[in-house]
Each structure stands twice: as structure tokens, then as C-alpha cells.
């Protein structure tokens, strides 16, 4: 339930309240003097209104960079910044401090990580203990040199993994990313007060990437847990767009894992609400995921409306986001065209063939997996049009030509749709039987390793 536009009369300030609660009072008084609602302020500073409400109640400590933006919006002349500085130096615990880990617990976590990654069947696990020893040696050298972790290094690490998780074969990426997530927790314990918000942001980014990577290799159960971790980490930053990115990524992956469609719609809708109409990757992905879910639920009109919203956002998308076709942070035109091809295909729209061709011709030659997914849309349309054997053969040819490491959850999702489109009375045809057997094998290859 949202805060009322009309705030009640302010209560007297309790002089015995904690500095955090006094900061909350200051935030609320400044907002009320400006005649602004929580929703209006949230839109101006790119923060969900619910976080603002918690900060005003003194339940959580707001990040310093957000307080600086609020101070500017309210015209407080540095008052809120100074008040927060007093809160941070009051000697009382605050909620934006980095978590502390003792060395013994880190060693236990490290051993569990090695065992857990081994259980997944991730390649080169045998080398992990040796790599762990090298990592410990590096820590000794860093300590001798007086080096402390720099948040800039970890920001770059997260940026690199945003590219790595889209590689065709990411088993090794999952191993390295898991180890780096653990290493990051150690490094974050030395975060200074001025940089805590940046460390929290990287924590959310790395958690999101690990959730995505685990889902991509078929570790569905573990991926679900990490999506929750990522959402909590993003909430700690107070950045609505970062939390929206978590929900948007999860919605897309949930579709291809066969999770309940209402859950997909819920995650996507929440992401859209958090972005508040801003043209960003998170909003576009969320609209695409919701359109996909709606067409599977039989709501073609709602799905097409979401595609129109997505197209409108794309026209306002920052150029650097549109130009990024190789990382999870980008949203090039090919992704817009893919979403449209998918919805038109599964919705049986008369323009499906046209949308499929537009998407295929837009992909550069190196994006063979993505192009193959749209070719599977074409095969689906053939089957739905009554050309069962040619459609199934088309789909089989697509899978045959793809390297094994390109056959991931997203490909399997589209390939399975082709098989499901075959009417029950036609499933005894030899080409259909052979295709379903081939698909079953692909699913086993893509399934989680136990």
C-alpha cells in the first residue's frame, strides 16, 4: 500500500531517538516542506518509494550518494548530507556498513564452494584447490605491500562477467564467478564508509550474474536461490533500476525454465514499476518477458501492447545500451526484433513470417545461436500451418547444425515448442518420433548435473 499524498501532522521529535531515526525525521520534514510525495521524489532520484519510506522511518540507513541527491532535490543546502555524516560518526551501528567475515568462516565457505562446484560437474574442478592456494599467496603479497581492495577493480570484474556469461560454453565461467563472489565478500569487509554504496552495487551485480549463469547451465534450483540473494542485495543499494534488472533477468530466465507464468508476469510487472517509464535495459527486458508470458496465457492483445511499449522505450534508449550486443547489460535492436518474432509466432499472428525474417536478417553472422532460435520460430509456424514433416525437419536441421555448447535452455525452449505444436494424432509419424527423441537427448545434455 502506497503512502498517502497528504502526510499526517508531524510528531514531536524524540530527543532520545537514535541518530538514524533523527536522519529519517530530517528526510521526511524536508520532503514535506517541498510538498512532494514519496512517489514523486522516488521518480526524481531513481529510487523506489518504499525505500524512501523506510529511510524516513529510520529502519534503514540510506546510501550517501542517494542522500546527496535528496539534499539537492529538497534544496537543503547540505543539511541532510551533514546530518548523515553525524549519523555515521555517532558510534552507533548503521545499516550501510559492509558485512564482516572472519577468516575461519571464509575457509569453510571456500571448501564448500569447491565441493559445490564439483557437484555441478563444472570442468577443471580438479584445479580449484591449486588455484585457491595461488589466491591465498596473492593475498599474502597484497598484505605485505600494504594493498587494500579497490572497488574500482571489482566494478571492472563485474563488467567483464557481464560479457562472459553470454559465452557459448560457460561452465568455466561459473567456476570463476563463484570463486570471485566469495573473494568479493572478503574484499568488501574493508570498504570505507564513502564507498559502501558502490560495494553494495557490485555485490548485487555479481549475485545477479551468478544467478543467471547457474540457470544457463541448468542448475535451476540453485539459480532460484541466487535470484533471491540478488534481489536482497539490490534492495540494499536503494536503487530501483538495479532491483528492476534483477527481476527482469529472472523473468526472462523463468520463462525458459518452465516456471509458473503468473510468477513471470509478477516479476516483469514489478521491474516495469520500478523503472517508472525510464528507457533502460531492465524495462525493455521486462516488457519482452511479460509479452512472452501473456501470449502463452492466450492474451495476444496484452502481449502486443507490451511489445509496443518496448518499441517506444527502444526509441529513447541510450546509444551505448543499443550498441552493446555482447553483454547482458546491452539491448540492441536484435533483441527487440527477437521478442516480436517470438510473440507473433506463438500467437499465430498472420505477420509472423515477416517478423521472423526481419529478426533473422538483423543478426550478424557470429550470432548463430540467436539466429537459430528464430529459425525454430519458422519451424513452429510451418507445423502450425499443417506442414508437419517439413517443419519438424527444419527444426531438426537447426539443432543438427548448432555446436553442442550452443544448445542451451533458450534453444531447447524454442525447439520443444515445435514438438508441442504437432497435433497428437500426427505424433506417430517417423520424422516426428525421431525429432522428439533428438530433443529428449538435447534436454538430457542441458539438464543439471547431479
Automatic annotation (TrEMBL):
> What is the native source organism of this protein?
Sphaerisporangium album
- Protein name per its UniProtKB record: XRE family transcriptional regulator
- A Pfam family reported for this protein in Swiss-Prot or TrEMBL: HTH_31
Molecular function (Gene Ontology), one example? DNA binding
Which Gene3D superfamilies does this entry report, sorted A to Z?
lambda repressor-like DNA-binding domains
List, alphabetically, the SUPFAM superfamilies matched: lambda repressor-like DNA-binding domains
- Per the database record, which ranges form the HTH cro/C1-type domain? 27-80
InterPro entries with a match to the protein in the record: Cro/C1-type_HTH, Lambda_DNA-bd_dom_sf
Amino acid at each position: 500500500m502506497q503512502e498517502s499524498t497528504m502526510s499526517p501532522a508531524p510528531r514531536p521529535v524524540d530527543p532520545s531517538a537514535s541518530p538514524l531515526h533523527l536522519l529519517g525525521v530530517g528526510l521526511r520534514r524536508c520532503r514535506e516542506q517541498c510538498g512532494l510525495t514519496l512517489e514523486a521524489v522516488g521518480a526524481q532520484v531513481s529510487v523506489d518509494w518504499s525505500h524512501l519510506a523506510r529511510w524516513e522511518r529510520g529502519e534503514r540507513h540510506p546510501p550517501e550518494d542517494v542522500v546527496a541527491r535528496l539534499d539537492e532535490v529538497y534544496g537543503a543546502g547540505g543539511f541532510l548530507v551533514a546530518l548523515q555524516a553525524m549519523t555515521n560518526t555517532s558510534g552507533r551501528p548503521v545499516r550501510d556498513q559492509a558485512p564482516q567475515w572472519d577468516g575461519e568462516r571464509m575457509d569453510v565457505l571456500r571448501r564448500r564452494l569447491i565441493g559445490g562446484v564439483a557437484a555441478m560437474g563444472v570442468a577443471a574442478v580438479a584445479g580449484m584447490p591449486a588455484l585457491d592456494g595461488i589466491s591465498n599467496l596473492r593475498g599474502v603479497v597484497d598484505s605485505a605491500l600494504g594493498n587494500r581492495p579497490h572497488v574500482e577493480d571489482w566494478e571492472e570484474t563485474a563488467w567483464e562477467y557481464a560479457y562472459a556469461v553470454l559465452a557459448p560454453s560457460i561452465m568455466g565461467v561459473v567456476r570463476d564467478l563463484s570463486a570471485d563472489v566469495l573473494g568479493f565478500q572478503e574484499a568488501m569487509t574493508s570498504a570505507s564508509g564513502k564507498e559502501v554504496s558502490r560495494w553494495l552495487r557490485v555485490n548485487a551485480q555479481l549475485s545477479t550474474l551468478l544467478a543467471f549463469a547457474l540457470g544457463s547451465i541448468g542448475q535451476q534450483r540453485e539459480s532460484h536461490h541466487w535470484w533471491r540473494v540478488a534481489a536482497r542485495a539490490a534492495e540494499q543499494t536503494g536503487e530501483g533500476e538495479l532491483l528492476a534488472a534483477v527481476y527482469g533477468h529472472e523473468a526472462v530466465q523463468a520463462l525458459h525454465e518452465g516456471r509458473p507464468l503468473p510468477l513471470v508476469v509478477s516479476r516483469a510487472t514489478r521491474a516495469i514499476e520500478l523503472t517508472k517509464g525510464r528507457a533502460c535495459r531492465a524495462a525493455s527486458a521486462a516488457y519482452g518477458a511479460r509479452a512472452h508470458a501473456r501470449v502463452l496465457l492466450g492474451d495476444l492483445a496484452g502481449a502486443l501492447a507490451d511489445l509496443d511499449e518496448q518499441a517506444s522505450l527502444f526509441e529513447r534508449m541510450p546509444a551505448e545500451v543499443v550498441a552493446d550486443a555482447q553483454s547482458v547489460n546491452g539491448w540492441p535492436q536484435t533483441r527487440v526484433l527477437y521478442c516480436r518474432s517470438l510473440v507473433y509466432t506463438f500467437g499465430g499472428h498472420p505477420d509472423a513470417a515477416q517478423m521472423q525474417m526481419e529478426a533473422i536478417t538483423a543478426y550478424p553472422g557470429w550470432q548463430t545461436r540467436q539466429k537459430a532460435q528464430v529459425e525454430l520460430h519458422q519451424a513452429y509456424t510451418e507445423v502450425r500451418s499443417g506442414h508437419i514433416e517439413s517443419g519438424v525437419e527444419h527444426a531438426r536441421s537447426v539443432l543438427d547444425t548448432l555446436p553442442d555448447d550452443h544448445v542451451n535452455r533458450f534453444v531447447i525452449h524454442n525447439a520443444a515448442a515445435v514438438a508441442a505444436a504437432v497435433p497428437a494424432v500426427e505424433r506417430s509419424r517417423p520424422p516426428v518420433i525421431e525429432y522428439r527423441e533428438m530433443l529428449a537427448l538435447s534436454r538430457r545434455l542441458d539438464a543439471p548435473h547431479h
